[in-house]
Amino acid sequence: MTTPLTTSPFTDQERSGADRLADLWFPGTARSPRMTELPDYVPLLGRGLAANDELASAFREIAVLASQAPEVTVETVATWPQDVVEGAFMLLLCTYYMSRDVRTAIGYPGQDRVPVANADPDQLVTDELLAPVIARGATYVPTPGRDR
Amino acid sequence: MSNSASARHQAPDDLDALVIGAGPSGVVAARVMAESGYRVRVLEQGDWPNVADYPSTKLERELIQAGPWNPNPNVRRGPSDYPVNDSDSDIHTFMFNGVGGSTVMFGAEWPRMIPSDFRVKSLDGVAGDWPLTYEDLQPYYEMIDEMLGVSGLGGNTAYPPGAAPPQPALPIGRIGRIAARGMNKLGYQWWPGTHAILSQADGSRPACSRWATCVAGCPEGAKSSFDVSMWPAALAAGVQLTTGARVREITVSQQGLATGATWIDRDGAEHHTSAPLVVVCANGVGTPRLLQLSTSSRFPDGLANSSGYVGHNLMMHPTATVLGCYEDDLQSWLGPIGQPIWSMQFAETDTTRGFRRGSKWTIAGIPGPAELIQRIYSLPLSERSGMTGQEFAERFTGRAFEWVAQIEDLPEFDNTVTLDPDLVDSDGIPAPKLRYKMSEESARALDWHIDRLTEVHLESGAVFTHRVDYMPEVGWHLLGTARCGDDPATSVVNGYGQSHDVPNLYIFDGSVFATSSAVNPTSTIAAFALRGAEHLVENAAEQRIPL
């Protein structure tokens, strides 16, 4: 399911529309790369499509619409079925941030093993931090037992 | 008499007890009984979870969680799942059908109910009191904590004195420290999280490695999903477990006692397992469904339902969140995902707020940029995409976390689980239909708490906040549909989970909750099951045996 694809997972029409959506939703910034310029753009999108059939279906549907539109803009997309658009966006969003290049650009290391034994001091609770809570005392309402 | 005549009867079942459901309450009950010498068999409609299937460590994690690993069975649609008609429900149910139950997907927050939760009627004049007290349950909470290896810090000011959790608390992270500072400025109670997650290795199970993907299945085995934390001991005690076994009906004798269950295997073949004791642990939706499926001339309205309360009073914990974004690097992708710190400041009733009972607050990290942008889903797409969306992720990835308010849901008789007249599961068994409308009081509570959560973010230094007023997709806590009580006219089971109507039928899951509390229920479910199973064993000589 997660094997990178070596060939395009799209029809030519879907690929054309996918590129236009990628350029609209992830055009790149001064810091983050443009999605269509990612070196692993196509294989990543293939992994994304393989991971979720329903979102893949939504994406293909919107990609076809995008390929047929004279121009793909925010206004254009707003005229398409919004639940399907949201599915397509979700797929592209998750796929974009799967890219190592993108993660590096924004300083996100990805989810990984960071053992609790290696916790830094600034990740731990301190007596000083808890002192005001303890000073205020108990907050619960004591209740007698039903037979007491 | 049941209609199980067509079932394929196996060799006589030489059992003392049959348990339906292999989640937390089922395995606790089975283990206790087996360790006491009972011959116990557990029927589970799902399979053993496979760590290799977990999306936790996969690049496509969020996409898999949105589909084949979704906590909503209507989205996931696995072979173990049954559909739930939730078209008439304000909240959609989450559950996992497999060994370990929904703990496979839970965040392992492990709070206890507070004493007043058991005395809501006496204190606040609403709902009903439980037929047991916090003090009754406290020793069992502590025993369960020991069995699982719960981590936390003793002395929580929100609770009566008692034993500290057996393992040290997990790190609260930078998000915990910044949130705590804001709480201190406002003079609010908070405490480091109590988790059913190991902070130190225990036997073959390692300590937490802070993946923050707990709800996608713990890749380490540090989280106490009950398949790894409780089932090995149950199996060692001799419990027999049958997976892929979907129970269709609990059968009864002419004397009105439970005799076992009819179930269907994955090939569609029907079986019947006999036992002199039946324990139902199928969750707050599955249990009333099964009781309503188990009709007979003696129980025409469903098994154990002389009160008419089976399937009523469904409670699900309305939840709201406020995202706070900060300028500081908070490493907010680090786990534990839920409850690095939490607060019971507003758990008790203060009617000047405009509602009764309260809420549990907790913080939660954001594991990655895609999830960060999903948190602002309610904004127009144009504000989440394009350069605007990308720059939002650049600025706040690792610098944002949520405050979450989980509202105590009071029982409403008309919030129900019934059998759907049309929808069926893959075996043709009627599916459950939910009718759940959030009360006006719960809605007022949500509004009040969201405002307070925003304030504490701002007090902590947030530069951007975004509120999600109400989350329909968080129906983790399925409670109240076979409530416990002293009065058989208004409850289904007693304080030990024993059916008022059918003395050899027990229920130990969240359906027994008389009120919902504001806290996550699994520690109470497990403690109730432990207490009930111990009571069952200790009083075995007094129980009637079916003929």
UniProtKB/TrEMBL annotation, chain A:
This is Gluconate 2-dehydrogenase subunit 3. It comes from Rhodococcus pseudokoreensis. The lineage of its organism: Bacteria, Bacillati, Actinomycetota, Actinomycetes, Mycobacteriales.
TrEMBL record, chain B:
Residues 21-318 form the Glucose-methanol-choline oxidoreductase N-terminal domain. Keywords: FAD, Flavoprotein, Oxidoreductase. This is GMC family oxidoreductase. It comes from Rhodococcus pseudokoreensis. Belongs to the GMC oxidoreductase family. It holds the Pfam family GMC_oxred_C. It comes from the Bacteria. Residues 413-529 form the Glucose-methanol-choline oxidoreductase C-terminal domain. SUPFAM superfamilies: FAD-linked reductases, C-terminal domain, FAD/NAD(P)-binding domain.
